[in-house]
């Protein structure tokens, strides 16, 4: 016999929510290095962070990993079972994850359980560009997460080395534009490894030309002078005009081991996702202070003036050696001060213990 309760709607499951980043970029762009550096950086600030590895080819990521797609499916098994190559197997793994999206949500609920809705997740993606330029599985999962109140921004990394070659730079810009159009989410493009740029020789233009993606027609003369690119003159001109017409692409800069560089990028992403506007937790004054300290960090550090590309050029290109020497001196002074404070603290503790015993 049926019961009147049988026709009642099922209770809606309350899932956890979070802020975070979707880290994309081609192979060698420094995605894993960035994720590892971000984990160290935010952990030092006492901000909860969970990194989710979405690369089925990496079973042991170099960073502390809260969730890995390899818990569900791994690349070697898919290649062996279905006779696929590495690229096809990666596409299959992402499709399999999408089909088992409930598994991902359950795992996210587990790791975010104690973060009170203000957790921070970072999704590290494979370097296969099709996954975030042409294939829909990753996009579909990001859209589903958005409906569950995950406030994410895409951080798209490109190796700064590519700006030293006109044809490579245009390719990087086109790839970034394609990712922006495909993913349809808050998006920041980043030139990574900016600290290595001085080793590649002098740039034809100031760094601001590349970060602001100014009139790319100036690069056409350079392309026309290259034998391998000159025969594609009309195609080069059409691609440059396409980028200029959209007017969407610009780049931030990143040196993972440089604190000010990380501060600027984290602050920018915090603004894009709304992390700076986390509401007070009225149930606990301590929680309220901690949450607001984390949120305000994103908007007020470094004076809140943004990452001036002229300062970046001065630091990493024009006077890198002088700045490196200055930083070494600052680190030495800081280390000596820490040792002095630690020694003073140990003496105070020993004196207090001695007085207590007598």
Automatic annotation (TrEMBL):
InterPro entries: Gpn (IPR004130), Gpn2 (IPR030231), P-loop_NTPase (IPR027417). It comes from the Eukaryota. It holds the Pfam family ATP_bind_1. Residues 335-358 are annotated as: Disordered. Keywords: GTP-binding, Hydrolase, Nucleotide-binding. GO terms for cellular component: cytoplasm. The keyword Metal-binding does not apply. Residues 347-358 have a biased composition (Basic residues). GO terms for molecular function: GTP binding; GTPase activity. Small GTPase required for proper localization of RNA polymerase II and III (RNAPII and RNAPIII). May act at an RNAP assembly step prior to nuclear import. Belongs to the GPN-loop GTPase family. Binds to RNA polymerase II (RNAPII). PANTHER family: GPN-LOOP GTPASE 2, XPA-BINDING PROTEIN 1-RELATED. This is GPN-loop GTPase 2. It comes from Kwoniella europaea PYCC6329.
